[in-house]
């Protein structure tokens, strides 16, 4: 069976510090991978999605970047965090044309 | 542009039926998905429609009309545990590379 791991679960970081969130998928190959952000009480905003190694589509210009160094690994990064980067970050994977499955999320608070 | 609209909040009574609507305008269409999200948790998949009509899965059913850009999620025999946010999502573009775009979600409160 397929599983998705996302860590850490919670993170408190000072303004201006770097960020690295990692997501890995097991039990499948060549998945589509997604990073979403959810502000409190709001919907999911698509940040990045990837259909293969090194292939990243950015949806919203911002302070974040994503990389896919391996087939089942997706990393969300920032060089310098802003207060507005606080939120609930969710990684997800899907097979071609099928539903997406989410990791447990990382609650990031920038202070 | 791409737009997915849902009501922000709904309230219903335990044991009743509730219908949550979703309208969408996207560039390309390759399926509509409904997710449930409890507070502080990740969304979980409920249903998928790619052809017009009704898909039934236990107490939950989902309907799609592609010509109208419209879907609804129907929850029957409501239980207190159904209190959650319900997210409508559309896969735009092609089926193998299309991205999954979410609406803002509908917060459903089930009352005794």
Q: What would you note in describing this structure?
A:
The complex is a heterodimer of chains A (111) and B (112). Chain A has 111 residues and is an all-beta fold. Helix content of chain A is 0%, strand content 59%. Chain A contains no helices and 11 strands. The radius of gyration of chain A is 13 Å and the shape is globular. Chain B has strands at 3-5, 9-13, 18-25, 32-37, 44-49, 53-57, 60-65, 70-75, 84-91, 100-102, 106-111. In chain B, a hairpin with a 2-residue loop joins strand 6 and strand 7. The model of chain B has no long low-confidence stretch (mean pLDDT 93). Classes of the chains: A mainly beta (111), B mainly beta (112). Chains A and B meet through strand 4, strand 5, strand 9 and strand 10 of A and strand 5, strand 9 and strand 10 of B.
Produce the secondary structure layout.
The complex is a heterodimer of chains A (111) and B (112).
Chain A (H helix, E strand, L loop, with lengths): L2 E5 L2 E4 L5 E8 L5 E7 L5 E9 L2 E4 L6 E6 L2 E6 L8 E8 L5 E3 L3 E5 L1
Parallel strand pairs in A: 2-11
Antiparallel strand pairs in A: 1-3, 3-8, 4-5, 4-9, 5-6, 7-8, 9-10, 9-11
Chain B lengths: L2 E3 L3 E5 L4 E8 L6 E6 L6 E6 L3 E5 L2 E6 L4 E6 L8 E8 L8 E3 L3 E6 L1
Parallel strand pairs in B: 2-11
Antiparallel strand pairs in B: 1-3, 3-8, 4-5, 4-9, 6-7, 7-8, 9-10, 9-11
What's the total number of strands of chain A? Answer: 11
Give the helices and strands of chain B as they follow along the chain.
Answer: EEEEEEEEEEE
Helix content of chain A: under 10%
Low-confidence stretches of chain A: none
Biggest sheet record of chain B: 6 strands, mixed
Number of E-type strands of chain B: 11
Shape, per Cα inertia axes of chain A: globular
Question: Biggest β-sheet of chain A: count, sense, barrel?
Answer: 7 strands, mixed
List the keywords.
heterodimer; A: 111 residues; mainly beta; 7-stranded mixed β-sheet; 4-stranded antiparallel β-sheet; 59% strand; globular; B: 112 residues; 6-stranded mixed β-sheet; 5-stranded antiparallel β-sheet; 11 strands
